[in-house]
Amino acid sequence: MQELTGAQALVRSLEQQGVEVVFGLPGGTILPTYDPLLSSSLRHVLVRHEQGAGHAAEGYAWATGRPGVCMATSGPGATNLVTALSDAYMDSVPIVAITGQVGTSLIGSDAFQEADITGITLPITKHNELVTDVARIPAAVAEAFHIATTGRPGPVLIDVPKDIQQATGPWSWPPVMDLPGYQVPGPPSLAAIRAAAAMLVQARRPVLYVGGGVIKSDSHADLLRLAELAKAPVTTTLMARGAFPDGHPLALGMPGMHGTYPAVAALQEADLVVALGARFDDRVTGKLSDFAPRAKIVHADIDPAEIGKNRAPDVAIVGDLRLTMAALADTVAAALSSDSADRTGGTALAGTGDWLAVLDGWKRQFPLRYTQESDGPLKPQFVTERLSALTGGDAIIVAGVGQHQMHASQHYTFTKPRSWINSGGAGTMGFAVPAAMGAQVGRPGELVVAIDGDGCFQMTAQELATCAIEKIPIKVMIFNNGFLGMVRQWQELFYDERYSSVELGTAIPDYVKLAEAYGCLGLRCERPDEVDTVLDKALAASDVPVVVDFRTHDREGVFPMVPAGRPNDDIVLGPEFSADEQRAATRREMTNRELGI
Amino acid sequence: MSTHTLSVLAENKPGVLSHIAGLFSRRAFNISSLAVGPTQDDRVSRFTIVVDGASTPVDQVCKQLEKLVRVLKVVELSDGAAVERELALIKMRVDPALRGQLLEVADVFGASVVDMSPTTLVLEAVSSPAKLDALLAMLDSYGTCELVRTGRVALARGAGVITDDAPALTAVREQTDTAA
Question: Would you call A112 a catalytic residue per the annotation?
């Protein structure tokens, strides 16, 4: 049997695993591994901060569906990955982190750059392991990728002490995985599928509540088929934007705290909510006890622990969502073909025609509304809509967290899955630039646009250097309103307009000069009539990264909004709507016929 | 307090205890009692975990435990259908005049004397948690000066075995056999 050092085994295992790129930054305890890395088939992208490596791995995974890999040294190198691991854990992103650790004889001695990274990351990884035997390296790597990518995906960390990297051990591939306690949920129960299909066919006011699981399981085609068969409207959560085309007549847009009125209200009035790879997150449900009060719930998820965690379902479907979606669509199709009545006006089958008419009315009455005056301050919604129009909804959009993220999600017209990447559950400021970098590496031929806030941008902007040097031509659109905008919005609404430590200022840094200093093209846009020209210029630059400083209106809020902890029925349409319109939205009077009574 | 007793089989590997304990901390579940030890298969540890059902969603605890990669099987032992035992060592400072009375109490509860000095004695009691509580209440008036209790351990009554329908555990065995 061939003998390899732990470091060689680690690198060769990554190659065998099909890894093409590693985002990382070397240091003392991972040095042995960086040596064989140099002569391997792996591309190493040298980041400027390990957090960037973690988010880049995430962006790569979001964009490609393949696991992202990041690497760091022990101690601070490893702890700098923590935010990204936490982010990946919250959003079920498959990444594998490899960290160096001090030599086994030094562990526990407070050695230089020692940190108990497996202990630290225990609650924010799907699994982690401190490898203490060189012979285990191939299996540890194979297990890490298996765990990260199967079932509900998530981050896995492997911590390898320096002496284990230097030791020599037997090499063979594929290794035998030793995971007796790890079981991947298989196909869903047919009985549950039949029960769910029957409920869907009979529902008068169904809503398909689509979460990130649909994108992760690549089941968007069956989602489209299911929605069209059942004539059921679809709302796509922040994690699922792009799973269903926004331009489709059955699309309601995003639900939740900053969801569209039709999506939020449809869930509140629904008689059936079919949750597909979604987890009844508090940002979607608002006050949980008042969420979708009239609805029966079908909950399909690959993670059994999500079933009943927040809302008890009437029908639970545990299993691979791709199989679930296909079976559900097939079963609904069979049920409909056995009854020739047209569903919309059908007799034997309940029809959703009245319901869809109500939703269309709401779409017309309560759209996403903002005002862009031709000589007034630049609105982030307007910039997003122009970007959407100029890219034909064809770009990969990456956002961090905050107002820019909500405006991007609301106003970009998504047409396909894996074209929206953001920090959903964790809400990580600084996610966008490095995640866009990872996405661009994963999909080099495509247009990757980070929409970022000025606050977020400044947290990880140093990765622009990585992008410029590594020829990763991302486009970064900074919505620069000089504030931590979402925090400002909350202080305006809930803290009597007392603005505490929230103003960043628009002028420092000078983002154009900063971009140029980093070897990027820097542009600025201050007026609505410049937007198309500046965007055209930015999108045309294919050889360098671009940063555009959009000076956006500092008072612009994100609406609609459901205040945190309040019932979704308390949705606030915002300043663009009259008191009469708000009253009509709140009362939402529906006729019995519309209610299907 | 409505308690639930969980039996958890896990791989006997480093870090397993912290994975399990960490899960309880991360999910804000409360552990009332925890006992861990090896099983007849030295690759497998058995945890007996008692949780308070009022403050902790037991179904969630089980599902989240099952998701841990090193956990092989989780079973909730229902009340009455399981033998539950705790062991306590109790150091008493006893007036020699009351010693006979105290030993009578101990005898009623099946507790035995495992150490004695002119002024103290140590009782060992093994019993169901409820009976142990009753003994401790009785002893209190005699002056308990030190008490240590193990966590609860439990086994289901009857012919059923926790490894029934546990393919995971079989897999461990098979691998052990292959290795051997």
Answer: yes
Give the count of alpha carbons within 13 A of A157, CB side only. 30
Count of domains forming chain A: 3
Residue among A504, A458, A448 at smallest CA distance from A478: A458
Let me know: does A38 contact A86? Beta carbons within 8 Å: no
Nearest CA in chain B to A124: B26
Give the Cα separation of A429 and A433 in Å (integer): 10
Closest-CA residue of chain B to A308: B60
Which residues, 6+ apart, have CB-to-CB distance to A469 below 8 Å? A519
A173 touches chain B (CB under 8 A): no
- A224 and A346 in a single domain? The answer is yes
Interface predicted TM-score of the whole assembly (ipTM), two decimals: 0.90
Which entry of A162, A216, A363, A475 is annotated as an active-site residue?
A162
Domain B3-77 superfamily per CATH: ACT domain (3.30.70.260)
Residue B5 has a CB neighbour count (10 Å cut-off) of 23
| Alpha-carbon separation of residue A495 from A348, A403, A488, A489, A490 (angstroms) | 54, 18, 10, 9, 7
Contacts of A573 (CB under 8 A, 6+ apart): A261, A366, A369, A559, A560, A581, A582, A585
**Could you tell me if A395 and A518 lie in one domain?**
yes
Same domain? For A412 and A511 the reply is yes
Which B residues, 24 through 53, put their C-beta within 8 Å of a C-beta on chain A? 25-26
pLDDT mean by block of 10 residues, chain A; 597 residues: 95 98 98 98 98 98 98 98 98 98 98 98 97 98 98 98 98 96 94 97 97 98 98 98 98 98 98 98 97 98 97 98 98 84 50 95 97 96 98 97 98 98 98 98 97 98 98 98 98 97 97 98 98 98 96 97 96 97 90 65
A257 and A394 co-located in one domain: no
Q: How many CB pairs under 8 A join A and B?
A: 49
Amino acid (1-letter code) at residue B129: P
User: What separation in angstroms does the CA of A467 have from each of A27, A73, A298, A492, B155?
Assistant: 21, 22, 44, 37, 60
Best CATH choice for the domain B83-149 from the list 1.10.150.320, 3.30.70.1150, 3.40.50.300, 2.40.50.1020: 3.30.70.1150
Residue type, A354: D
The set of residues, in sequence order, having a beta carbon less than 8 Å from that of A190 and lying 6+ positions away, is: A327
In a domain, A306, yes or no: yes
A162 is catalytic: yes
